[in-house]
Write a structure and sequence with these properties.
Elements (H helix, E strand, L loop, with lengths): L1 H13 L3 E7 L9 E6 L3 H17 L6 E3 L6 E5 L3 E6 L1 H7 L1 H5 L2
Parallel strand pairs: 2-5
Antiparallel strand pairs: 1-2, 3-4, 4-5
Helix pairs in contact: 1-2
């Protein structure tokens, strides 16, 4: 699990993702073991971050179960089964405030 998290975090950092947060989920309530939340300054940057995560996962044979929001780019979700990655623009991150919602 830590290796997969490291791959995701490194991919976010490679594309200059900001305010990277990983949240350990409560096993009884969770849809995943971890959430990773990262901000890209623009839609182009959020897409670049998502693309880098996909590229790194593909190279390491880590399956991505689903991807949502790529076309719009304000909130891109990548489902890696036990880790869900949320890539936001600053306005979308402030609006949805997932850290407050999921931090217990």
């Amino acid at each position: 699990m830590t290796e997969k998290l490291d791959i995701i975090i490194n991919a976010c950092e490679e594309k200059i993702g900001k305010d990277i947060v990983k949240i350990k989920m409560d096993p009884g309530l969770a849809i995943a073991d971890y959430l990773v939340v990262v901000t890209g300054n623009t839609v182009n940057q959020t897409r670049a971050i998502a693309d880098e995560i996909e590229k790194e996962c593909e190279e390491k044979s880590i399956e991505i179960m689903g991807k949502e929001g790529y076309r719009d780019g304000n909130w891109i979700l990548l489902d890696l089964n036990d880790i869900i990655v949320h890539v936001f623009t600053p306005d979308a991150r402030d609006y949805y405030d997932l850290e407050r919602l999921w931090s217990f």
